[in-house]
Design a protein that fits this description.
The structure is a homodimer. Chain A is of the alpha/beta class. Helices cover about 35% and strands about 15% of the residues of chain A. The first copy, chain A, has three domains: about 20-95, Arc Repressor Mutant, subunit A (Orthogonal Bundle), CATH 1.10.10; about 130-365, Type I PLP-dependent aspartate aminotransferase-like (Major domain) (Aspartate Aminotransferase, domain 2, 3-Layer(aba) Sandwich); about 370-495, Alpha-Beta Complex (Aspartate Aminotransferase, domain 1). The first copy, chain A, contains 14 helices and 19 strands.
Chain lengths: ~500, ~500
């Protein structure tokens, strides 16, 4: 009989910390696996034994084991116990089942003749945002107006709150001094481009058009790499080049690929980080809507795996509203000086009143409560959307375990741009999946539909309209209307992806 | 006897417009002079006759004549009447007496060992800003939080308020659709650089270091041109180059040169605009503190002289506070598309809540009232500063008819950097005039002192400290301290111009 395994880990648990104990233990175990301290195939002690060993409750250890199993670090074999996964390493086998998901949404109106319901992605649910805590935060912040500029990297109080949010919600050991407050993810991305003097960036294909527009405007050359149902195809990344400075970056949405919804598996994450290290490149992790998960817990952010190669790009546009234009960066300590130098040169664009209001709002725990409420509301709308789609035999939702939008796959051979046009005539603005492509021409015909800010009636109506538009398209073509030929060129501007449809806002 | 002169102008006065009638009349007369419709030397009708002719009160006509006389367009000859000035044209003779002025100020504290009073320029007076109207504007704005992004060029309500402010306060026929709301003058300048794809910019020497830093960071080559007591030496501008696109820009502070305080005379303004047109260049008019005048009315903004070549760069940092990070641009209609395209690509950084709050605040007339109050307070501090300086026989204030700061000229041969260091040891942070220079080595020894946010006691204390430091420097040097030799290299970082000391904020 083999001796019972022991954890034998250098554990420094901090019971006073904001990070829950199970998350602290999971973090320590994760590091031990990545460091090779716990090799592939190693058996872990039972939760009861481990609990005794580290002085925690069994339930706490169980929570940590379950989290790491979900992330692909551990495997549970029935009757045999818990083991370090064999699937970690250089191969791209996914250790966890692939998950795809939707994103976020909008429900306003743009003018293309008649007023339409805007269901293109990009809008969160703000109906319950203005509450007494929100009002009090703004009242207090607008009453204190000094005569100087806010600090270049952000108000210390807000940086601390963002760091705490990242520790609790995203499993990243974030420190306030590594946080930079931005005027939204757009400004955050521009700041990254300036600080790293980026000339070349790998982008996902399909991915979000507005990030590509911003990078092009800043003189950055784009290198599209395809995405599959697991997210970025890391094997397709360009070979590492010689030479250090300006080695570039890869912009990636690992927790929920935009727009297809894939969750990048752990093995690919490790390969991506290895690629970046070999190349001297930076991974820019756009973590735009990871707070919205329906079921499985999110994988921790990439920034928690490699604090030296990852710039974490976050936003409050999805958890609060893009109306605020506020986001944040988590920057590796070695790069902090470069970011501070850009802000010193270009100035800071983020209002002090707003930073103070948000710091107060977050400090009171209101963000957590608001996200929980919004998540419940969105889950309700998502269930309604899925039920509506189920009633249309020719439509299929791509995986929607997360986010604020859904990719609706149309019957093979359908002209999606024409469907978008026909649905717009019926009063619903959607986006076509093809509009997110860089070079890809092999994407299935699909539309992208945001549901976070939509009414149930609009969701039903839009799904019915999509079904009808697909059916119309299969009717015999009369000489007066030749939708197939005219489709691409006659899509009105208004139904292109919204000008600022960027997920990060 | 000659026939009595007539105005005979195509006058389209609009009694319902926000622009006062005397300003409308002055604008029409100004255009007539510039168009050659009223040639140099032409005699104008008496105010009474003109009033009858155009159907206005005599007092209204008188106000228009006085304004144009102050601006240098008209001359009044005792007993003979009012004439179009002979001084307009290609020569650089100043038609109006030169005026110099101070700027703005700060009164916080930075840490260089002990806590010091920060009197470097850049801070307005915010002590009376938070009033019921301010609170109400923020309360209302923070209660309406949509789920979408603010419009790329700004909220229409705020753009309209800014246009009205420019019409009334700066004599510019501004339209809301030509206004762009910015995240402060820094962001505004970066937006200009992107929209015009600037590669070369003429800057004033001395001028503000932070604008130069921002332009350099954006890859723009700087071409310093000297400034004299009237402002930019237009004759020293580089020769017009052949070729259209990317012909560059000149960044100028015509209403109140930063930091020296000169007011660019009308003749130079016209030459500058002619230079820009010949070169296909754009004049970027940084109008950072023109609201603060003590006595003479300000010259109208350059943008009112040439709506096609001038981009007007404004800020709320001086009239409200740099804490807000909000400013604006007035853009020629032919360039509007280029600005919209940059915002489309890079996103908008200005919070919707804040834009809405400012629109409400401005619409209620509160900005005008606040500026009037702040101007009175600043005039009081300025008078106290001048009185303090008068008590120090070796110190001299440069002209201070405007702004929120003063340039204090030290005795010839004084090492100003050493004075700044010595004064910092006594608890007052100032800037040295030399820190604003690009290539200039011929500037007088001087320090720059902001007074808008300072207490009277601090102003007296700082002046006494400057006087004492100058006197100390003239003492025999002991081997232990060799201030002259060590001065430049030992000035602590904290007393360099404040990192974001940019006037526009």
């Amino acid at each position: 009989m083999r001796p019972a395994p022991q954890l034998d880990l250098p554990l420094a648990l901090d019971r006073a910390a904001a990070t829950p104990l199970h998350a602290q233990l999971a973090g320590a175990l994760r590091r031990a696996v990545l460091d090779g301290h716990l090799p592939a195939g190693a058996r872990l002690p039972s939760t009861r034994r481990a609990a005794t060993e580290v002085g925690l409750a069994s339930a706490t250890v169980l929570a940590a084991y379950e989290q790491l199993t979900g992330e692909g670090y551990l495997e549970s074999r029935h009757g045999a116990g818990t083991f370090v996964s064999h699937h970690l390493g250089a191969d791209s086998t996914a250790p966890a089942p692939p998950r795809r998901a939707p994103q976020d949404d909008g429900a306003a109106a743009t003018g293309s003749g008649t007023r339409a319901v805007d269901l293109r992605p990009g809008r969160p649910d703000t109906r319950r945002l203005v509450d007494p805590a929100w009002r009090a935060a703004w009242r207090s912040a607008s009453s204190q107006v000094p005569s100087w500029e806010p600090p270049p990297l952000g108000l210390p109080a807000l940086r601390e709150q963002v760091a705490a949010h990242l520790r609790v919600a995203r499993g990243v050991p974030a420190r306030a001094e590594d946080v930079v407050i931005t005027a939204g993810a757009d400004e955050g991305l521009a700041l990254v481009a300036h600080a790293l003097e980026l000339r070349d960036v790998v982008v996902e294909d399909p991915g979000y058009p507005s990030a590509r527009r911003a990078l092009r405007r800043l003189g950055v050359a784009l290198h599209p790499v395809p995405v599959d149902e697991h997210g970025l195809v890391v094997d397709a990344l360009p070979e590492p080049r010689a030479g250090g400075a300006g080695a570039g970056a890869v912009l990636v949405t690992p927790s929920h690929q935009y727009p297809l919804g894939g969750v990048l598996p752990l093995a690919r994450r490790l390969e991506l980080l290895a690629w970046a290290r070999a190349r001297g490149a930076v991974v820019v992790e756009d973590d735009y809507d990871s707070e919205f998960r329906y079921g499985a817990a999110p994988l921790p952010a990439l920034a928690g795996l490699d604090g030296d190669s990852v710039v974490h790009l976050g936003t409050l546009s999805k958890v609060l509203t893009p109306w605020l234009r506020t986001g944040y960066l988590l920057v590796p300590p070695r790069l902090r000086e470069a970011f501070a130098a850009v802000r010193h040169d270009l100035g800071t664009p983020v209002s002090g009143v707003q930073q103070q209001a948000l710091a107060t709002y977050l400090a009171g725990g209101s963000l957590r409560r608001h996200v929980a409420r919004a998540r419940r509301d969105c889950a309700h709308r998502r269930a309604h959307l899925l039920a509506s789609l189920a009633s249309q035999p020719h439509l299929r939702a791509a995986e929607t375990s997360a986010g604020l939008h859904s990719v609706v796959v149309l019957p093979e051979g359908t002209d999606a741009a024409d469907v978008v046009r026909r649905v717009a005539e019926r009063g619903y603005l959607l986006a076509a999946l093809a509009d997110y492509a860089v070079e890809r021409r092999d994407l299935p015909p699909a539309v992208v539909l945001g549901y976070a800010d939509a009414s149930l009636a609009d969701l039903s109506g839009a799904v019915t309209a999509v079904g009808a538009a697909c059916a119309d398209q299969r009717l015999p073509v009369t000489p007066a209307t030749t939708p197939t030929a005219a489709a691409s060129s006659t899509v009105p501007r208004a139904v292109q992806p919204r000008s600022r449809s960027r997920p990060g806002g």
